[in-house]
Amino acid sequence: FQRLRAGLSRSSSALGQSITGLVRKRKLDDEMLQDLEDALIQADLGVDTAMRITEELARRRYDKQVTADEVRSVLAEEVEKVLKPVTKPLQPDFSHKPHVLLMVGVNGSGKTTTIGKLAAKFRADGRKVVMGAGDTFRAAAIEQLKVWGERTGATVVAKAQGSDASGVAWETLDVAKREGADIALVDTAGRLQNKAHLMDELTKIVRVIRKHDETAPHDVILVLDATTGQNAMQQVEIFRQVCGVTGLVMTKLDGTARGGILVAISDKHELPVHAIGIGEGVEDLEAFDAGQFARAIAG
Ligand code: GDP
């Protein structure tokens, strides 16, 4: 919690400070409500959420003296109300043998790192893990996954840079079946520059996985970089159109000024939020906790 708080402190202290500035020894009037709403929108919480929070504040305290702490506590409560229903730990069904998890998201969002962190967790639980280096566009992504393989003792399936990603996915499932693996983690490239191409590539990967096992992929996890702020909302919309996203992981919450976007995304899309990334290290993936996140946002 301390690390999440430290990470979110840039956004929360910005929001916390504006709340302190706005509230200082004043009655809760229309002007203050408007200023608070603006501050929440600035913090990426989204217009609908911001309006609901200020309405709730008005319902409770209109025309009364309020303190910054009271405002922060209502804020934390309302944010938690949005986040609680989407809080859902990742729960692979290992009886699938293998459970197939496809990781999608734009380049640099943290897909490969998140796969490595998940592999480490499953390995620590004694699970057999196979990772597929489906980001065939970047040689570095393939190398990075191999390093995670050595570090975690998970099998890595990789082909040369530029190979067909769906071929890698197919072989990953082949190897996973052959080795009796519990889970297959399949990486992908995320070049958003060309949406038609992205769609072609991802639908082909999903089709190939489905051909191998008609119940798969069992999880399609969209990785979002918290530092991209409002762009993350757009990414959710695009990837939902392109492939059936089943859940989210938000990364880089250790360095962001924009954690509020997760609240806006959850309010609008109601997609399960599985975990958050709070650093580059193997331990830096945590199950999502709505209450903690809400308190960190509120400052
Ligand atoms: P990909 O292109 O989506 O596979 O992204 P990568 O996994 O290669 O990550 C891109 C960069 O972000 C790398 O330098 C990672 O170390 C870094 N990264 C990933 N997750 C986190 C996180 O939670 N916090 C921080 N600070 N960096 C992260």
UniProtKB/TrEMBL annotation:
Its EC number is 3.6.5.4. Residues 4-83 form the Signal recognition particle SRP54 helical bundle domain. It catalyses: GTP + H2O = GDP + phosphate + H(+). Keywords: Cell membrane, Cytoplasm, GTP-binding, Hydrolase, Membrane, Nucleotide-binding, Receptor. It is found in: Cell inner membrane; Cell membrane; Cytoplasm. It comes from the Bacteria. Residues 97-289 form the AAA+ ATPase domain. It is an enzyme of class 3 (hydrolase). One of its GO terms (biological process) is SRP-dependent cotranslational protein targeting to membrane. GO terms for molecular function: GTP binding; GTPase activity; signal recognition particle binding. The keyword GTP-binding applies. It is a peripheral membrane protein. Residues 98-299 form the SRP54-type proteins GTP-binding domain. GO terms for cellular component: cytoplasm; plasma membrane. GTP binds at residues 105-112, 187-191, 251-254. Part of the signal recognition particle protein translocation system, which is composed of SRP and FtsY. SRP is a ribonucleoprotein composed of Ffh and a 4.5S RNA molecule. Involved in targeting and insertion of nascent membrane proteins into the cytoplasmic membrane. Acts as a receptor for the complex formed by the signal recognition particle (SRP) and the ribosome-nascent chain (RNC). Interaction with SRP-RNC leads to the transfer of the RNC complex to the Sec translocase for insertion into the membrane, the hydrolysis of GTP by both Ffh and FtsY, and the dissociation of the SRP-FtsY complex into the individual components. Belongs to the GTP-binding SRP family. FtsY subfamily. This is Signal recognition particle receptor FtsY. It comes from Lutibaculum baratangense AMV1. The chain holds residues 126 to 424 of 434 of the full protein.
